[in-house]
């Protein structure tokens, strides 16, 4: 059963389709970890913004579309269907922005939301530290009050997009007498502040994209705190909920990838192989289930209901499915999978990239082991894991 869209939603969908058909770049943009790639993605983001599509469900007073989640989902579905570029400012649009809308002051919303939408200001996420990944409450970066500022010392790691970011939203320890979830604060800092040093990290598949970020006596205005001082854990958990739970439209990308498996099997001459057929049919069934589940989530959000701990279910499901889809692609490629650009496969390198990215998706936004713990404890009522 498909979701019943209203007449006006279907008109809206047709408008979006037409716009994407006319505007999506015909060639893939250069990767967004070079200056050239970032500039090309910014231009694309500017086109989306000018057309009013940057963030449809954000409040209109800050430059958003003021639409409900169903329209946002319709847009995201069409966006993925059109194979449009990955959103460059996704950490702002998907994480920091919704958090500031929920917890920020009017002044903070006015200051930061418009620049996120237009992509004039790029954002990165400063949560993870060496020793504080899954156990995020072990954050040790210190922020000491000094006049109207906090002074930051410490280190973040695995900071995506940091080389080009204008702003970072970070979790820091403001009260060292408190441990774990208490005494943490959520703060926003300009990446060009004196005392910030970036050290790039190259990934397993050879691409750059991450940095370690070091803070030495970095002054950050206290007015950049989101929520209350010392209440950062609650704010950070909201961010993680947004990160895990509202990848609306992602299911279309996964369904597209399953369809590419069919094309790939035909090109490789193995479409009649029972093992490959079995695997492809299984991926199709799994992607269909996810699509229906995400439509249900969107209708819940549109009705004003939160996703809560179900965001862990969403994150676990899509990242595991993504991995299985890309593994199926490599199985279909057989021995050619070991070549960077296999024969009979126009997009051989693309499958490799997606395979490695899918492996990483089991880690980022909180590892899948952690999601299983959350599901066990909060959705199933199992006893807390031993600590
Ligand atoms: C592609 C990518 C992009 C990222 N981008 C960012 C970013 O922009 N900003 C940012 O702040 N971070 C980012 N991260 C970091 C990411 O959030 C962390 O890698 C993740 O939270 C895991 O932390 P860790 O690497 O310290 O692993 P650890 O926490 O050390 O975990 C190691 C292993 O132990 C398992 N484990 C740990 N604790 C438990 C437990 N209690 N029960 C069961 N198993 C457990 C984990 O599941 C994992 O398999 C990114 C990571 C990736 C891969």
From TrEMBL:
Transmembrane segments: none
Keyword Flavoprotein: yes
Acyl-CoA oxidase/dehydrogenase middle domain span: 124-218
Domain Acyl-CoA dehydrogenase/oxidase N-terminal: 7-118
Cofactor(s) essential for the protein: FAD
Highest taxon, organism lineage: Bacteria
InterPro entries in the cross-refs: Acyl-CoA_Oxase/DH_mid-dom, Acyl-CoA_Oxase/DH_mid-dom_sf, AcylCo_DH-like_C, AcylCo_DH/oxidase_C, AcylCoA_DH/ox_N, AcylCoA_DH/ox_N_sf, AcylCoA_DH/oxidase_NM_dom_sf, Mycobact_Acyl-CoA_DH
UniProt signal peptide: none
Record-annotated Acyl-CoA dehydrogenase/oxidase C-terminal domain positions: 230-380
Pfam families for the chain: Acyl-CoA_dh_1, Acyl-CoA_dh_M, Acyl-CoA_dh_N
Nucleotide-binding listed as a keyword: no
Keywords from the UniProt entry: FAD, Flavoprotein, Oxidoreductase
PANTHER family: ACYL-COA DEHYDROGENASE, ACYL-COA DEHYDROGENASE FADE29
Recorded family membership: Belongs to the acyl-CoA dehydrogenase family.
Protein name: Acyl-CoA dehydrogenase family protein
Native source species: Candidatus Mycolicibacterium alkanivorans
């Amino acid at each position: 059963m498909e979701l019943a869209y209203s007449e006006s939603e279907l008109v809206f969908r047709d408008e979006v389709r037409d716009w994407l058909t006319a505007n999506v770049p015909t060639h893939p943009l250069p990767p967004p970890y070079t200056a050239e790639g970032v500039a090309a993605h910014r231009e694309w983001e500017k086109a989306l913004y000018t057309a009013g599509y940057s963030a449809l469900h954000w409040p209109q007073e800050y430059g958003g579309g003021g639409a409900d989640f169903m329209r946002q989902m319709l847009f995201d579905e069409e966006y993925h269907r059109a194979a449009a570029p990955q959103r460059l400012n996704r950490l702002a649009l998907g994480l920091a922005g919704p958090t500031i809308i929920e917890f920020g002051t009017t002044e903070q919303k006015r200051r930061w939301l418009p620049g996120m939408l237009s992509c004039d200001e790029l954002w990165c996420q400063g949560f993870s530290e060496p020793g504080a990944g899954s156990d995020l409450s072990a954050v040790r970066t210190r922020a000491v009050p000094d006049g109207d500022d906090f002074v930051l010392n410490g280190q973040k790691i695995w900071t995506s997009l940091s080389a080009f970011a204008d702003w970072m939203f970070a979790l820091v320890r403001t009260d060292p007498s408190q441990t774990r979830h208490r005494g943490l604060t959520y703060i926003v800092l300009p990446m060009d502040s004196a005392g910030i040093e970036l050290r790039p990290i190259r990934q397993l598949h050879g691409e750059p994209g991450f940095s370690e970020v070091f803070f030495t006596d970095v002054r950050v205005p206290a007015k950049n705190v989101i929520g209350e001082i010392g209440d950062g854990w609650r704010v950070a958990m909201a961010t993680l909920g947004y990160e895990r739970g509202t990848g609306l439209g992602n299911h279309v990308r996964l369904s597209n990838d399953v369809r590419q498996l069919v094309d790939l099997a035909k090109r490789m001459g193995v479409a009649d192989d029972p093992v490959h057929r079995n695997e492809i049919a299984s991926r199709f069934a799994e992607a269909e289930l996810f699509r229906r589940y995400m439509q249900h989530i969107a209708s819940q959000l549109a009705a004003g209901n939160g996703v809560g701990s179900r965001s862990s279910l969403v994150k676990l499901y899509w990242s595991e499915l993504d991995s299985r889809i890309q593994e199926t692609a490599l199985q279909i490629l057989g021995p050619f999978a070991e070549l960077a650009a296999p024969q009979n496969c126009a997009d051989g390198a693309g499958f490799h990239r997606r395979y490695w990215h899918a492996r990483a998706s089991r880690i980022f936004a909180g590892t899948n082991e952690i999601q299983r713990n959350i599901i066990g404890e909060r959705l199933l009522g199992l006893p807390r894991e031993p600590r």
